[in-house]
Each structure stands twice: as structure tokens, then as C-alpha cells.
# Entry
Amino acid sequence: MEILTKKHQKLYSSFYESTHNNDYLDNKTEILVGLSASLAMNCSPCTSYYLKKAKEAKINKGEISEVLAKVMAVAAGQKRLQAQEVIKNSGIDIESYK
# Structure
């Protein structure tokens, strides 16, 4: 089932394909950026796609590990800041928790 109209699907497909033809990023960088974005957005099909592309491009396990670590660090930092904001905006005295 396709939610987008044929017109919108065609426009999306054209845009998506254009992101693979970069003027400034080399192929390896484009794959690693795509992998990090797909991990950050929790897109399993995209993560699988970029992991396969990484293998084709001979990107090694260490490079993939560093991308995953960076995504994990950003996600953890975002959750820490989210909790701090909720505590502050809710007037909760977290120091009173024992």
C-alpha cells in the first residue's frame, strides 16, 4: 500500500536519489552519514541498506562501530537534556530524591 500519490512518490524518489549523487561528499562519507542518519531515525530498512553499502565500499567494522558510538552518544545526551528540561519545567526538586 502506497500512501503518497504517484506524483508525490515520483518527487520523493527523485529527491532521495539526488542525495546519493553528491558534489561534496565522497562515497564512503555519504554511506557513513546515511548509516548514522538511519540509526538515529530508527529506520531498520535504511540501516540494513547502508550496512550492505558499507560492506560493498569496504568500510570496516571499526568505522561502523565509531558511527554507532557517535549516534549512541548523541542519543544519550539528548535523553539527559530531555530529563533535565522536564525536571526544570515541572518544578521538581530532584535533589530531594534519596
Notes: The helical segments are 6-18, 27-40, 44-56, 61-90.
